[in-house]
Structure formats: C-alpha cells, structure tokens
Amino acid sequence: MTDTDMADSLSRCIAQSEYPVCTARLVPEQPGPVVSDLNRAFARLTGCSRAQLLGTRPVPSLAPLGEPALIDALKANLSTDTPCVAVVWGLRRDGIAYQVRWSVLPFSASGGDVDHLVWMHSDVDPALAARQSLLDETQRLQALIESAVVPRSPGAGDAAPRPQPATGSTGDAVPLAAGRPGAGVAFIDHQRRIKRVDAALEAILGRSAEEMIDQDIERFYTLRGEFDRDPSIYRAVFEASRDAVMLMAAEGYFMAVNPAALALFEVHDSGQFLRGYATPAALSPTTQPDGEPSADATQRWTQHALDCGQSLFEWYHETATGRVFPAEVQLSRIDLDDDVIVQMMVRDISEKKAAIKALQQARGQTEAYFHTAPVMILFMDITGAITEINEYGCELIGLPREAIVGTRWFDAFLPAEEKSRLEGVFAALRRGDTQQTEYHENHIVTAKGEKRVIAFRNAPFRDTTGQVTGILASGVDITRQREAEAHLEYRAAHDELTGVWNRWRMTELLNAEMQRVQRHGGVFSLILFDVDHFKWVNDQYGHAAGDTVLKTLAVLVSQRLRRVDALARWGGEEFLVLLPATDEASGYKVAEALRCGVEGADLGVPTPVTISLGVVDCDGHETLRALIKRVDDCMYAGKRAGRNRTVQQEARPD
Fold this sequence. Notes:
The longest helix is centred in the middle third of the chain and has 23 residues, at about 350-370. The chain is flat, with a radius of gyration of 48 Å. It is of the alpha+beta class.
C-alpha cells in the first residue's frame, strides 16, 4: 500500500468516527506537529472550522486552569512511539473552557521514524460533572449519618455542661457517637425494607445491622422492650411512617394519629382528627359493602386483634370530604406495662382495586374473544401437547374440548406425510425463531378424516427468564380459498374441453425449453398434428360427436407420451407436442407411433379418424415463431400428400 493509499484510508476512518480526531504531521522546521486532517466532531469540539484548523497545532489553547507542566510532559513524548493519555483543560474559540481527554498515538506513515500523530479528543465535562455530583451527594449523606443530633436537656446527674452545636443553637445537643444515642438513621427502599443503618440505630434497637438489613421496617414499630425504655423511638418511627398509622385505646377510640393518616383522611391537624373522628367507624360509611354496619364490624375486628394479636382485612373508609375508598387495614395489639393499645395501619388500595378490575375486564374480554373468535386458537406446551383450544377449533376438528386437551397436536391432528416437516417448525418456535415460522400453512386432519388447509400464525410464550414455555397458534381455515385458487390456476393453464395444456401454457413451456437449450445446449422436438376431415365429422355426426373425438384423441395421445413431454390443444382440432431432449429422428418415431395408434382406435364415431403430423427439432438457434412455422409447414405438407402422414423437416435452417 502506498503512502497516498494509507493517507486516504486513514482520512476515511477519521471522517466516519463519532469522536473528535485529527492527524498531525511532524514538520522538522516547525516547533511542533501541525494538523494535516480532522473530522467534523473535532471542529465542533474546538469551535473552529476545518479551514481554520488545517496547518495549525493540534494542542488546544490552554484555559486559565490548564496544567503547563502536564502539557510540557506530553510535548516531550510526541516524538516517541509510546501512546499518551491525559485529561487537560482547553479553551474554545468562543472563550468557554472545557476539559478534554487526549489520546495521542505516534505512528510512521513512511515506515521509518515517527512522522505523524493521531490526536483523539473527547469532551469529558458531563462524565466528570456527574461523578463529582455523585461524590458530593455521597459525602453529604455520610455527614448526615455521622453527625445526627437530638435536643437534650441537662440532667441532674450531668457532671459538666454538654458541648454546644457548631451552629450556635441555644439547646444542648448530644452527638450520636457520645454516650447513649438519642436517634438513629435507617435507609429503606420503596418496599419499606431496611437497606442500611448507622451505628446509632444498632445501639438504640440492640440489634446488629445484619439482623436488620432487608427486614420490613414495620417489624421494628412495636418492639416492646425498646418502647418501654424510650417511647420517643416509637414516636419517631410513628411520625415518619409513609403509611397511615393511628393508635387506638382498647376501648376503641383514637389516641394519636400520624401525618400520613391526616393526609389520607384529608384532615388538617391531629386535634381536629381526634375531636371529630374519635373511632374507626367515624372514618367509614354507615355500612360496609356486605351490609354489616361499620360500627359493629370495627368492634368485631378490634376484639379479634386484642384476642389474637393481629387482624388484617379489607375495609371501605370515608375521608373528611366524603370520598369513599377501599383500604387494607391491619390492627396490631401492643402490650405496655400497665395498658394495652391497638395500632391501626391503613393503606389506600384504590389503585390496586382499579388495576385488578381492569385486569379482570381485560381477561373477560380476552376470554370472550377466545371462545367466539371465528378462527382456531390453541395453546401448546413445549412438548406439543394441547393445553387449551377454543370452541371454533373444536368445531373445526369435530371433537369436544375434553377429547382434544391433553393430546399431542402432531400425533393426533396432522397428516403423517407432513408431521416431520411441522415438527421442525415447532422446534424452531421453541427456540424463539419466528422469522420463518410466524406464518405457516399446513393441512390438519379432522375427526372424520377430512383434510383441511389452515393458515397459522404462531407466537412463543416466555417466562420471566425469557425461556419459551409454550406456543400460541391461531389458524384460519383457507381450504375453500386454496381450492378456488387451484381451480382458477387450472383453468388458466388447461384447455376446458380436453383437459390438456392450452396455447398460453404451452407457449410458456416452449420459451422455457428454448432458453434451456440456448444456455446448456442440446435439442428438443415438436410435433404438430391435425384431425383429418374434422369439419366433415362435425357436419356428419354433430358438434357433440366432434367434441368426443377431440377428448378421446387427447387421452389416447397423452397415454403414449412420457411424463416429461407436454401436450397442448393449439387451436381448433390442432394439437402440439413438446418432446424435451429429443432429436428429429426420435421425434419422428414418436409421431409415427401416434399416427398408427390413432388410425386403428375407436374415437367415438362410426367413421375411422386419422391425423396428419409434422415433426421438427430445434437447437435454440431460431425464434419461437420461426420454429412454429416450420412444424406447421411440415404438417400441411402431409395433408397435401394425402393425409394420415408424418412429414419431417427437409433441412434445418442455418
């Protein structure tokens, strides 16, 4: 490859790159490399045009925060064959500073010493900014965990005043790391499971982080021992809970409510809540959907929680504005030293109910379509066993659902001659390959033994891991359509009276045979024959008798031809025979055999019937029109010679 070819190839590669790239040529008389080529991405990064950059130095203008020592070190290595990578500050033409990652690769275009550099730049501002933001946020969270404080008044046993917070707050504050911790921090995910705790929370609850990680935060709401030692712990969790939580005396009236409950029931403050909605029945419609009065039902569920420790049930609540919503309610008994209370947790399940209802409606619609669709729909497992089929499919097969489900589709309802091929289609579907199998036509066998043509559309079902667990196939019965198409195709290519090929189809066959001998060599022969005195037969015995002669003649000739030969009604009482791979001598023998066979045959009329034949061969060196004229001339020569004769060509044209 020449230096020019190498330069052209490198230029094309640079132009197609999405990264900013330039090449620089080392010029002895210059203090550094100069730009010899660059792509659009490089021009956009620097804010200059291609014309402005060609012939200049590739090192970007240094920003005020640039590192001169780093730049000098890179310059010193440009003449070596060692790649250089560094992150530096650059200055765009519009004055905006940016950070850029350099990747400089020295190479030799001439095969000798290093004389060029490939200089790749990439703007790393977004990535660095995102990383720094993440680090800053992590440091802030860590600082919050490590320096959390809670107000605390000096106790009688305190020997010295507590240190004041750095912020200058007037109240004493005790850092979590000093003495008995006053508050701990736990991080929970959207499922309310603990993902991380600090040392203070471990000390408060007397449990290690390993014991708490991945546990539901609710498990620690009612830790009796900790509640007894320090009720403020429960209060902190109670206030911060995202669930609506209320504390209720054993007699059935509320004692406390958290902010989430106020928001759920649309009440402004806890005082208004406790004064206006003292019991669960006050937060409920008069009766529940089953007709039971809400007051009676709340007493029953509360007593159940007191007796058994917990109650979990669905309920309909009503907000202060009159909005009724379905809820999941959990009542939990909490034993104190001298009392028993009940914690009531309420979750609005309106969206859950709506989703279930929508799912049920969709399922109902799907099942209705499944059973009423005018197509066969069936499900198969990966073994090919039928697991479900709709009513139309049962009617098409002619068996009840119970007799079909559980049977193997390929063994029970497919023709034996198609089973192997269709097993291959099914195997491809199990692999998830639908390109060749999404649409497929094949026969099925009904309970009566009738074959039907079904056009199937197939789709694999997958589990959560992506594995194919079954196949859905929907099929349309296209038997009549295919029969109609076959009938039309037959009529388009066959003579209606005799059933042999018509002139249009024979012309197609002749053109194909002509092209074959032109490409591959060889020869073929044509025989054109005509019924002698056919007009007299029609006049003497009628046209019905003449039709019988033609039909019988077509059958007689067809029986004496090979399977590769073709017979067509060419027009009126004329017939044309195509003999592939047959020379003139062999064609003449065939024609003579046909003439003799017809001469002594009964063609349905009292008078003997004879034919006159012309025979020619063709090696592809003439047009089809010329070939037909030659065989036609031979046939009429036989008629002029007295009929009931076979005439072959005298000489093939040059």
